Task: structure prediction
Amino acid sequence: MSLTETLDLGHAFKRYFEIVPAFSNVLRDEVYRIRHEVYCEDLKFEPLQRDRRESDEYDAHSLHFLLRNVQTQEFIGCARIISPQSKDPDYPLPFEITCADTLDRSIIDPALLPRHHISEVSRLAVVASYRRRKGEASKAIDIADEDFGVAQSRRFPYIPISLYLGTFELARLHKIETLFILTEERLALHFAKLGFDLKFIGPPVEHHGIRVPSMMSVSGTIKGMRPNLRPLYDVIAEDIKRNLPETGNGLPGIENEY
Result:
């Protein structure tokens, strides 16, 4: 990759995509539709629903956003960050249940952290036509070394990275300090190579395949972001700021409706 291409991630992304925070019922319906297509129909991780919408108990306590193709105006991906319930802050996040017996609490004990400053990255989904490479029919989302090749490849290489960068910007805006994630070890290692401030916090567990729990510092990752990713992050931050609903203070809460 040439220096020009390396520094052009933000411009390349902006030509094709934009990040849209999903704070309205209409936009959240798009989130649930994409999740059903990916997690229920395609990957079969969750049961099919008659209304073709996939949602769960954590959605009311989550910040959601969508990835839109600006040329076709179709929504093609989504993600969320789950926060502890404000009325019951001790209510566990999903990874705390899945990894209850395996977390290395000498590294971190999520129960001892200020609950309003932590969240879990969850339900990243990209529709199949934008997701698949050879051998990826059973994968929700991934990053590979070849994703840092030419931008003209059919699978636009910045889609999974942009979704994760979107979670960091939403977390920063809502003063969330630590993001937890349960994902494939290979994916987590790619984040580390990209300069994400990531640390493994327990051994692998079975959860729709072998997954490893990790924690990521929001401020550490943003502050230490590699120069080639900064333009992409800046474009995503601009997208989120531009597409936030008008609420007076500019920052809608997790449980608000618009």
Summary: The chain has one domain: 9-243. The first strand starts at residue 17 and ends at 21. Residues 9-243 form a domain with the Aminopeptidase fold (CATH 3.40.630.30).
